[in-house]
Amino acid sequence: MQVLANKDFNDWARQRQMHMETVLERVLPSADLAPQRLHQAMRYAALDGGKRVRPLLAFAAGELTSAPVDRVETVAAAVELIHVYSLVHDDLPCMDNDELRRGKPTCHVAFDEATALLVGDSLQSLAFQLIAERTVAHSPSIQLELIRLLALASGSRGMAGGQAIDLESVGKTLTQTELEFMHIHKTGALIRAAVLLGAHAGSGLDSSQLDAINHYATCVGLAFQVMDDILDVEASTATLGKTAGKDAEQNKPTYVSILGLEAARKLAEDLHHNALLALPEFGESARRLAQIADFIVQRQS
Amino acid sequence: MQVLANKDFNDWARQRQMHMETVLERVLPSADLAPQRLHQAMRYAALDGGKRVRPLLAFAAGELTSAPVDRVETVAAAVELIHVYSLVHDDLPCMDNDELRRGKPTCHVAFDEATALLVGDSLQSLAFQLIAERTVAHSPSIQLELIRLLALASGSRGMAGGQAIDLESVGKTLTQTELEFMHIHKTGALIRAAVLLGAHAGSGLDSSQLDAINHYATCVGLAFQVMDDILDVEASTATLGKTAGKDAEQNKPTYVSILGLEAARKLAEDLHHNALLALPEFGESARRLAQIADFIVQRQS
User: Is the Cβ pair A117, B95 closer than 8 Å?
Assistant: First the structure.
């Protein structure tokens, strides 16, 4: 049963990952276009990599509201471009100074720092260009609301703000609440945006449904981060595709450093359980969201 | 006559600059809000500085179409936030490595590199948030088009792309055409966006009017850059508020290095003249756009 369910999910996920790759291939400027080096570097950073967790969440959330694929693929691509830009900037020497990402040299290593800076900047602009120029919602007003949600999730009150809190916490002792506050911004905001944008690309949701989706997204976002912290300790660099053990080396507070490995595992399971509690009211249409929650706590990399 | 006209323009410009300051004060997150250091740095970079040329252009273009002030102020602020983000990133050590901007230490000097990186990233998100969440056009569809224009002007086919071309040209000999291609992207795209967004914030424009505005914006954008190159040679660091003589020191191709000082001055005057040729069809409503063109070639800093 478990095997079958996994195979079904794996097939679904692999199809969407390939679909996402095709969409990103198409929306990223061609490497032949001037400025070529910048466009090559944008494609290097964004293509052929990653689990595409945020696009999978957007596609899965789109199933709740029967969102047309051409709308969901656009919001999924926009969220993924924001995510990739943040990885490129986070890897820079003045931030995490990381040399390996998705099993390849990071963008500033493969190209140079200035180019990587512009890659991140340009990917952010491209995300907003995409979501403004294609139809992604039932009405232009709802589309404006989606752009606002994505901008909020990306900026100083969302992802970039979480990164700033992370910087300030290096070498400090945080409480679990402070750590949670950081991650709700750093990774949670964009994961939540992926779910909300995917759902909004379809028919309307009532406020109780929106609350349920928000609850799911918050739990899944935190579970994802707790697992990241666990994997940074447990997995090898080869499995992760990025440098393992960086958190401890950089003296960063993590769920593992604060709670210990066992309690962190328990927390991930509790968050997983909590995420699933939000889904029954959507019936069978929430099947993929449930499977993604499973995947997030079971993943090995 | 000249003195009176200048006083009239100076008063108009000073009022809009102060107005812009008030709007930016209001839209930037308070320095008390977490993450405080990031918000302090965003305010440090964006407030109390600069000539606000792009907002002035947006306000002036808004007069062509009787754009309501609450719409123009929003597009003006969004364009200025994009401009400020680009300055913060351009000043970073991996780019121009500049320590002085608008008469103050640059953001990464006053704070640190990682914070300056996040300041730029967050200001870009804030620009799109603003222009999505406030009403800036007659209809949500037109508003989506404005967001698309701003994103295009900011990204790899606009400002960030121009910056990449600039990086590739250091130490190279460019033709005047190649230099122009770079500047049409690096500074021209956002200046054009300021004019177009300001005009679109009001009533509709027909295609001949749009062509005329595009022509004006292209000429003024280039004239602005030619004057920048001239001032980098002629003005002092104190007058400029940023380090003078950087272009020659960094072996960057400029209009002065390619054409010589006299021919560069002549080019600025020709562009000025050409910009004004686009305006008569708008009658008195184009008065401020004409005065900004005058100001751009007469400025001393």
Answer: yes
> For residue A27, how many other CB atoms are within 10 A of its CB?
19
Q: Please check whether residue A271 is in contact with residue A226, taking contact to mean a CB–CB distance below 8 angstroms.
A: yes
From the list A35, A85, A94, the residue facing B168 with the nearest CB is A35
- Which range, of A165-174, A288-297, B115-124, B186-195, averages the lowest pLDDT? A165-174
d(CA B214, CA A277): 55
Q: How many CB atoms lie within 10 A of CB A110?
A: 16
Residue with tokens 């990774």: A187
Q: Which amino acid is at B29?
A: P
CATH of the domain at A267: 1.10.600.10
Q: Give the residue ranges of DSSP H helices in A91-188.
A: 107-110, 113-133, 140-154, 159-169, 176-183
Instruction: Flag if A122 and B155 touch (Cβ within 8 Å).
Output: yes
- Residue B70 to residues A277, B35, B53, B67, B74, Cα–Cα distance (Å): 44, 29, 18, 9, 6
Structure confidence at residue A58 as a pLDDT band (50, 70, 90): very high
Give every CB contact of residue A275 below 8 A, 6+ residues apart in sequence: A215, A216, A219, A220, A223, A293
pLDDT at B127 (0 to 100): 98
Which residues of chain B does A89 touch, with a Cβ-Cβ cutoff of 8 Å?
A: 117, 121
Number of folded domains that form chain B: 1
> What is the arithmetic mean of pLDDT over B279-287?
96
Contact yes or no for A139/B140 (Cβ under 8 A): yes
Domain that holds residue A100: 2-298
* Pair of tokens at residue B171: 């130490």
Residue type at A170 in one-letter notation: V
Integer Cα distance of A59 and A64 in angstroms = 9
Using an 8 Å CB-CB cutoff, list chain A residues near B160.
38, 118, 121-122, 125
**Inter-chain contact B164–A115, Cβ cutoff 8 Å?**
yes
Per-state percent for chain A, helix, strand, coil, to nearest 5: 75, 0, 25
The CA distance from A24 to A47, in Å, is 7
From B42's Cα to the closest Cα of chain A, the distance in A is 9
Residue A236 has pLDDT above 50, yes or no: yes
Reduced to 3 states (helix: H, G, I; strand: E, B; else coil), residue B209 is: helix
What's the pLDDT band for B106 if we cut at 50, 70, 90? very high
H helices then E strands: how many in chain A?
Answer: 16, 2
**Min Cα separation B266/chain A (Å):** 29
Distance of alpha carbon B234 from its chain centroid, rounded?
21
pTM for the full model?
Answer: 0.95
Nearest one of B83, B123, B69 to B224, comparing CA atoms: B83
pLDDT digits (tens, 9 = 90+) for A157-178: 999 999 999 998 888 888 888 8
The shortest C-alpha distance from B5 to chain A (Å) reads: 39
Which stretch of A163-167, B213-217, B226-230, B247-251 has the lowest confidence by average pLDDT? B247-251
Interface test with A, best of B82, B133, B156, B190 (most A CBs within 10 A): B156
Q: Residue A206: helix, strand or coil by DSSP? A: coil
